[in-house]
From TrEMBL:
Organism expressing this protein natively: Paenibacillus cellulosilyticus
GFO/IDH/MocA-like oxidoreductase domain span: 129-248
Molecular function per GO: nucleotide binding
Superkingdom as given in the UniProt entry: Bacteria
The name this protein goes by in its record: Putative dehydrogenase
Gfo/Idh/MocA-like oxidoreductase N-terminal domain span: 6-118
SUPFAM superfamilies documented for this protein: Glyceraldehyde-3-phosphate dehydrogenase-like, C-terminal domain (SSF55347), NAD(P)-binding Rossmann-fold domains (SSF51735)
Transmembrane segments: none
InterPro entries (UniProt xref): Gfo/Idh/MocA-like_OxRdtase_N (IPR000683), Gfo/Idh/MocA_Oxidoreductases (IPR051450), GFO_IDH_MocA-like_dom (IPR055170), NAD(P)-bd_dom_sf (IPR036291)
Amino acid sequence: MDRKVKTVIIGMGRMGRLRYDALKRHGGFEIVAICDTRDSNLDGFAERKFHDWQECLESVELDAVIVCTYNAFIPEIVCSALKRGYHVFSEKPPGRNVADTLTMKAALESSGRILKFGFNHRYHNSIIEAKALVDSGLLGDIICARGVYGKAGTVNFESEWRNDAELSGGGILLDQGIHMLDLMHYFLGEFSSVKSVVDTLAWSGIQVEDNAFAIFETDRGQIASLHSSATQWHHRFNLDIVCTNGCVVLDGLITSTRSYGEERLTYYRKDLNAKTGKLGRPSEHTLCFTEDFSWDIEIKEFHDVLTGAKPLRNGTIDDALYVMQMIEQIYAAGRRGGN
């Protein structure tokens, strides 16, 4: 493709606007229309505007569709766009359940188009550096991983659409924990067993879980633990990757709210001879990141795939299906309290 990619964005809430800005910064996309059911989300934009996504897809000449809607509407829009011959970039999660994801997989396989899902955390600086470090073999083989990802909610948390089971399909695990689960899959591969507890511990007014705890094991004996929480009153992102010869610690994450603190990667190699003079306190190496380029890197990758510059490696339908299957296993194994 030797011209700009004609693109529409369906859903102009917070995520749609983030994607809009990233498309503009990239320069390889021409945003020909935007769509949202709310006039307030369309105000201030010069592009052609629609309230109905079907009318939008029928009325505009385009190459690609960016889907940033509620979870419940993602499968129908994605499938319709693929069937019309358009490439699609969709926000996570890939629907509300495995059935939704399988529906999109079938549409993709018969379309010959590109479908990419927005597992954005893979593109954060700390994650990119950690993956390179682990893959280098410097720290040996991965033994286990521990991940905590949590937020506090808001004053209006109980009335947010994310806690409406019909619109979202799940609670904090499907909304935010899915990112940590995707990262664990990214670093460790597939898991063979799951144990979990899923419950609503504090937010009694919501239909979905506010906490999920899970332990996974791979066929190679590696262990991973995950805590996804909407009762982490002090926002937290932490991922420890323990290897045979050292450890990588990811702490903090640069986000638009800046509420997860500074994004840092610290690694150290085991020092049983206490070369530092203190057993259990090996020399540490820390990288600090103050800017978030993840949105730009992710959109660049999508553009590279569309133009044939490289194959799709991240956010594939297989990535999406696997993480949704894992989430359903976590729910099935750990549901308490009737949710």
